[in-house]
Design brief:
Blueprint (H helix, E strand, L loop, with lengths): L10 H5 L20 H18 L6 H8 L3 H7 L3 H17 L14 H12 L8 H10 L8 H24 L2 H6 L3 H22 L5 H17 L3
Helix pairs in contact: 2-3, 2-5, 5-7, 5-8, 6-11, 7-8, 8-10, 10-11
Length: 231
């Protein structure tokens, strides 16, 4: 995330500017209303099974068994497993980003590195919880299929949106002289932050010992050095 990915940040940061959020996945119109909590049970069951077993072993049969709902309830909301897992990714991302600070313009006199540290301090602390959109998204990016799953497509769209808005933030906060010398620096810094948080997410799945403050300080130091090297 955060985020390959990730990472990224709150709704204002993700949705603002010229980088649109991924298009909605539409489900067929319904003739009656299902209980509101049924959809949540289905999403939770699908997320848990996918996290435990991977994409292919996640089946509608297993989802219905885990959720305690009939097959008809799953197909009430989703046309197939592909659409369901894509919605798991979207739902997880929406929940995660709602808890992240916005990439708002910095107040006068506040250094870029201080603003970046404030955002990352919140974001990196959410990684140990292994948000479903990151876990499933990373899993699918490593797998090659003849037909790309909708969840993988959506995850990559989310990453592109996060990267674009983070790059826009860097571009707003860097000085004109830096941008003139290195016009692609905002994009490169955005990619650096996302790649670093991706790595931390994966590392935490292997070894739980980590210090978020040290990680944030390291990334901020790298960003600062990259800007300073421009002269």
């Amino acid at each position: 995330m955060l985020a390959t990915g990730l990472n990224a940040f709150a709704e204002r940061a993700i949705l603002g500017g010229p980088h649109p959020a991924p298009a909605e996945i539409r489900t067929p119109s319904r003739r009656r209303q299902e209980p509101a909590d049924s959809r949540g049970l289905i999403l939770d069951a699908a997320a848990r099974i996918a996290a435990e077993s991977g994409y292919e072993p996640t089946t509608i049969s297993k989802i219905t068994k885990r959720s305690g709902l009939p097959v008809s309830s799953v197909y009430w909301y989703f046309k197939d497993k592909d659409e369901l897992l894509a919605e798991v990714v979207r739902h997880s991302f929406d929940e995660w980003r709602a808890q992240q600070p916005a990439l708002a313009p910095l107040a006068a006199g506040v250094p870029l590195t201080e603003g970046l540290a404030a955002v990352l301090s919140t974001s990196v602390r959410s990684l140990p919880a292994a948000p479903d959109f990151l876990r499933i998204g990373h899993m699918l990016t490593l797998e090659k299929r003849e037909t790309e799953p909708a969840a993988r497509t959506l995850f990559l769209q989310i990453r592109d949106s996060v990267e674009g808005n983070l790059a826009d933030w860097f571009a707003r906060e860097l000085t004109p002289s830096v941008l003139t010398t290195r016009p692609r620096l905002p994009q490169h810094l955005a990619q650096l932050v996302i790649a670093a948080t991706d790595g931390l997410f994966l590392a935490h799945q292997i070894h739980e010992a980590w210090n978020p403050d040290e990680f944030v300080a390291l990334i901020v130091d790298i960003v600062h050095a990259s800007i300073a090297a421009t002269g």
